[in-house]
Amino acid sequence: MTNPVNRKQPLKVYVSDEEKEEIAERARLASMSVSNYLKAAGLQHRIRSVVDLHAVKELMKVNADMGRLGGLLKMYLANFETDQAARSEVAAILKSIGETQQTLRERASDMTA
């Protein structure tokens, strides 16, 4: 973006009351002023919502919890005698946890890119 000192030209945009409210809400969600939001949108800059960043943070917490759960299951398998059926069931759970963690990482990456 340009230096704020050079910003001398106002730009008028005519909108309805509903459109004005929606633009203001979207700017608020992105933690931006309406002016900066409209400028970013008009210049096709990526606008990241604070809500998206919170969602990514929550996904990463779930990912960490799943990692801890997988670690506990592995410890269970290593330290206790279990029958083959229980071992294969736990192995299937570990595989599912790994696949879910990969999906979470991909979604979080998509949201931050």
Brief synopsis:
With 113 residues, the protein is mostly helical.
List the topology elements.
Elements: H1 17-29, H2 34-42, H3 50-79, H4 84-112
Key words describing this protein structure:
mainly alpha, single chain, 2 domains, rod-shaped
Structure, explained:
Helices cover 72% and strands 0% of the residues. The longest helix has 30 residues, at 50-79. The protein is rod-shaped, with a radius of gyration of 24 Å. The protein folds into 2 domains: 12-42, no CATH class; 50-112. The protein has 113 residues and is mainly α.
The tally of structural domains comes to 2
Q: What is the overall number of helices?
A: 4
Through-space gap between termini: 19 Å
Low-confidence segments: none
Largest sheet: none
The SSE string, one letter per element, is HHHH
Q: Give the fraction of residues assigned to helices.
A: over 70%
